[in-house]
Amino acid sequence: MAEREIYKGIEFIRISKLSTDQRAKIIASFPKDKIIKILRDEVLLSDCIQYHEYQEWASEHYLPIVSTVSIKTLELENEYAT
Fold first, then answer.
1. Less Cβ around it within 10 Å: N or C end of the chain?
2. How many domains does the chain have?
3. Which structural domain, as residue segments, surrounds residue 11?
């Protein structure tokens, strides 16, 4: 999961700070109208997603894939251990 930032009470993550894998998946599957811009210290951050929306996306699109891979890896490790 990405580390959240908070500015003026808005919890968000930046797409550019995600891992390469997550960044590619979120660009492909996240609704474009949910990407927000935040003006912080006269710098426009144009790749922000509200943290709660990122959590929802991750639980539906990213974490199940990671969990499945982890389970398959454990199954293979157990198979070769016996």
1. C
2. 1
3. 5-81
Asked if 48 and 36 touch (Cβ cutoff 8 Å), the reply is: yes
Whether the model pTM is above 0.90: no
Q: Is the dihedral of CA 52, 65, 35, 23 positive or negative?
A: positive
Do residues 54 and 25 touch, judged by C-beta distance below 8 A? no
- With helix as H, strand as E and coil as C, how does the chain read? CCCCEEECCEEEEEHHHCCHHHHHHHHHHCCHHHEEEEEECCEEEEEEEEHHHHHHHHHHHHHHHHHHHHHHHHHHHHHHHC
